[in-house]
Structures are given as C-alpha cells and as structure tokens.
Amino acid sequence: MVTTVNCPTCGKNVPWQDDQKWKPFCSERCKLIDLGEWAAEGHKIPGEPAFNTEQDPDDFH
Predict the structure, then answer these.
(1) What angle do CA 17, 9, 45 make, to 5 degrees?
(2) Looking at CB atoms within 10 Å, which of 1, 52, 57, 60 has the fewest?
(3) CB 49 within 8 A of CB 38
(4) Whole-structure pTM value
(5) Mean of pLDDT over the chain
(6) Strand partners, 14
(7) 9-13 contacts: CB < 8 A, separation 24 or more?
(8) Among candidates 17, 19, 28, which has minimal Cα distance to 4?
(9) H-helix or E-strand containing 35?
(10) What is the pLDDT of residues 13-34, one digit of tens each?
C-alpha cells in the first residue's frame, strides 16, 4: 500500500513515492504558489528575529 499525504496548497491526495516529482505538492503549480507565499512573507515561522532589524545589515559581515 502506498502512503499518501495531502498537498499543503490544495489538499489533494499525493502518493508518497519516488516517481511523484513534486511531493509533497501535487503539481509544480502548487509548489510555486507555496514558494510565492513564503517570498511574500505570507508564511512565517513564529519567534523573535535572530537579529535587530534596525541594525545595519553590513555589521554582520
């Protein structure tokens, strides 16, 4: 029996197997939608910033 997972974007069942190119997503479209959400900061990991956001970024080099 093949294990299935839900696509994080649309919820469609996705077989978890080697030939499933976009797993855990059902398609490249769903993968790109998710990537766009991260890029637009629609998805965030909660917590405090790792550095002071008002500090000059060049100070970290």
Answers:
(1) 105
(2) 1
(3) no
(4) 0.67
(5) 86
(6) 5
(7) 9/33, 9/34
(8) 17
(9) helix 28-39
(10) 999 999 999 999 999 999 999 9
